[in-house]
Design goal:
single chain, mainly alpha, extended, beta-glucosidase activity
Length: about 120
């Protein structure tokens, strides 16, 4: 998927027009998305309840998110050679450099369909 959502839309449209991706695949994806939205009541109550803003980022929610990551994280390659894996890091490891355009941008770290695509950086 391209970084920009408009590129994705253009590319997907082109692939559907060329019959590379069948329209039935698009219909299936839309059906699954709409089913969840209907189940969640997003068409009856489309706006966020601002009184719940204080619930965001609570310690217990972050702990649950960390647990989900621990249970679902998949390491595809652990270093260049099996004899010298990079992970786990030593307990007394010094500093770890996090670099790149996403290093200090919470919106980008959250992924495509979240804060960043809603027009916010996530750092405000």
């Amino acid at each position: 998927v391209p970084f920009g959502y408009t590129e994705f839309i253009d590319d997907l449209t082109s692939q559907v027009e060329k019959n590379i991706i069948p329209m039935s695949r698009i219909d299936d994806a839309v059906y699954r998305i709409l089913r969840v939205k209907f189940t969640m009541g997003l068409f009856e109550n489309p706006y966020a309840d601002r009184s719940l803003v204080g619930e965001l980022g609570k310690h217990e929610h972050r702990e649950l998110a960390r647990e989900a990551v621990r249970k679902s994280l998949v390491l595809l390659k652990n270093g260049k050679y099996a004899s010298t894996p990079l992970l786990p890091l030593p307990k007394k490891a010094g500093k770890i450099l996090v670099a790149g355009s996403h290093a200090d941008n919470l919106g980008n770290q959250c992924g495509g369909w979240t804060i960043e695509w809603q027009g916010d950086t996530g750092n405000d």
